[in-house]
């Protein structure tokens, strides 16, 4: 394996090949692309740059493997998925080390957050194969009608870089639980954890060809995968700009798809809220994972009566964050994913200044190697400002004040996105009104960003469509067939 830096020991499971049909493969062209460490910009390794030929091969072996997988009993499938989950738990230290190295995520966060989410997903979906049921429908006359739920076949899983390990695992294990095979096309900025996950699947006895990973540096493999006639469903997580292209391509081929896209989520704090709890939620909502979260609470809406108290608490916490090497156990804020993304975030910071927002803290580049951005807070931001409306996907918080519930809801809903939202209040009636009226797929009351694989997750408006999680999410990986019986 090609490594430019020897400062970090190479984690186990780190490979520089695609995983297709149980084999480690290069691209037929021999072309590769560099994978960079966000903490210092060094090259970790190089990966194959796949194209249409590699995708065609991956879909072909996936289709063949899926036919045999669908014929296996649900008990056999569930047992193999449980073994995969067991082995992931045994190898979780290696998997989270790879995630930290590849994404720049602090190792403590990778273990506590990503490792926990990984195991929740693996355990939950491993128990799903025997939970999917059909139904009967009473009809007039002498007929009995059954509705069967069948696997789609081959699923295309296009995964993001911010939660690369969890994203790949959730799509893969849920697809297999429903009886499908999957071809994963990870982000070129974070492909290593998906490759590692596929290796663990093979070690666990998951039949070759059910979990495949093709890598590329641009969009060639992704486009070929979405358009491939052997793919029945596309599960995409990423930006709304790319999501529109993927959905259009899938629609042109009459494929089903789910789109989990971006967000500009509001966190609303009323004057009767527990300010300490609200400040903690606001801090974690925007600064965890360097703000690279689709549900990031990037808009903090605060009642005028408690504005100063809450702002002071958030700024004090942000100012005390330890920024630095993701491999350091004490690091809280690591780098963002790339130099280009850092420059984009810094561009938004300048936009915030130009628009007249009050820069309370942050805004300067840390004196560190790698792609770091300091925690940044703007106060007195106009709801119409670009930093209050466009997804920055970094540790930049826009603070706005409101006078009453109607104004808070008006500001919260004045967005093109609708993924996450939160409200802190002691009044149950207000919380329920907010949950009813907010235009978002997820509402957290006196908490923020709680996730579990049993709970449907998805958005409204530009945040996409379809759901991940629970039986709602599983329905996207199956299709219904109606069967009529003449009873006599």
Question: What features would you describe in this structure?
Answer:
This protein has 488 residues and is of the alpha/beta class. The protein has 2 domains: 18-261 and 463-483, Aldehyde Dehydrogenase, Chain A, domain 1, CATH 3.40.605; 266-452, Aldehyde Dehydrogenase, Chain A, domain 2. Helices cover 38% and strands 20% of the residues. The protein is built from 15 helices and 22 strands. The protein has helices at 52-71, 74-90, 92-103, 107-126, 164-177, 192-203, 220-227, 240-252, 275-287, 307-319, 339-354, 386-389, 405-413, 428-437, 470-475, and strands spanning 18-20, 23-25, 32-36, 43-48, 135-138, 143-151, 154-158, 181-185, 211-213, 233-237, 256-260, 266-269, 299-303, 358-361, 376-379, 396-402, 417-418, 422-424, 444-445, 460-461, 464-465, 478-486. It has a 7-stranded mixed sheet, with helices on both faces. Strands 9-8-7-10-11-21 form a 6-stranded mixed sheet, sandwiched between helices. A 3-stranded antiparallel sheet has the order 5-6-22, with no helix packed on it. Helix 1 crosses helix 7 (220-227), helix 2 runs antiparallel to helix 4 (107-126) and helix 9 (275-287) packs across helix 10. The radius of gyration is 23 Å and the shape is globular.
